[in-house]
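Chapter summary example: a protein plus adenosine-5'-triphosphate.
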Amino acid sequence: MTKPLAPNATIGVLGGGQLGRMLSVAASRLGYRTHIFEPGANPPAGHVADQVTTAGYDDANALRAFAATVDVITYEFENIPTEALDILEALRPIHPNRDALRVSQDRLTEKTFLRDLGLTTAPFATVDDADSMTAAVAEVGVPAILKTRRFGYDGKGQARLKAADDAAQALADMAGAPALLEGFVDFSHEISVIAARSVDGQVSCFDPGENVHKDGILATTTVPARMSGSQRMDAVLLAGKILNALNYVGVMGVELFVTPKGLIVNEIAPRVHNSGHWTQNGCTIDQFEQHIRAVAGLPLGDGQRVNNVVMENLIGDDMDRLPDLLAEPAAAVHLYGKADTKPGRKMGHVNRITQKTA
Ligand code: ATP
Ligand code: MG
């Protein structure tokens, strides 16, 4: 048994968005402090944290000073620059580890890792220029999606190819960034598994949720997802396999496509995940507490689902509906404290709860 973080210890969090905010709240409930490191001013997580450092990831002195005040470091996003990690890792433990970041920062490394684990992914090929694009279309076929290898989120950095004729435009859309062409998966629906692994190797998965995207952004997650018992077991087993292979500590989001031929892994996120927000009102222990427990060296908690939940993201103008949402019975509203509403910006979410059916 590893020695857990003592009460009142400080957890450093890289990134000050809504995920960092909800991690801070969970940490606080377990008696820990948090220190947020975030380049942007007035970060949502800063409102509920013990300390905030406003500095860039290229500021070595700020990174060292931050590390000196914390006992362990975690993060809410995967695109942390390598140089910053080098500095931090020399000073404090970072969970999830470098391997998890290395694998998930680049879609090529990620897909290769998943395939080498024996899991099924969409067919893929790298694209750097017109020649490799032609070769990739020949290999992968159409329809297909061209995605930048790095820094994609909410469907950004992606171009769809309905036919081979669309190749030139799709390549132009990448603006020279290294890319990956993925064969289009004919899925019936999308699900995700939010999985956790403790320092001691204990693994616990939340019930898979069914995800619907609008304009490339997650709109709703519904639990239970439409899945057979054996699909559910497959989903949980493959998530456990991924966590074990990475010697992972913390919560991970595993996005999957459900097809008649079985589950296909879309991508993994080495952090708490938007599609796991339902756990806040669907489980005794939610994904944020589970992550903090793992990072702090505590045993994982009881993540069993106790309610049916539909999580709806509140994006941009959805905030205008707030009075109605607040008046709804059996609806828990979670807001991120962002001052400005912008189109496409995640402002909060609502968890609608009904009695557990399955
Ligand atoms: P997010 O931040 O929402 O996770 P992302 O920008 O990292 O998104 P992906 O998850 O790769 O991008 O893709 C976004 C959505 O596009 C997927 O949830 C799915 O609906 C669709 N999509 C992605 N890849 C494929 C594919 N190979 N076949 C079919 N649909 C796909
Ligand atoms: Mg995704």
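Key point: The chain has three domains: 10-94, 123-183, 189-355.
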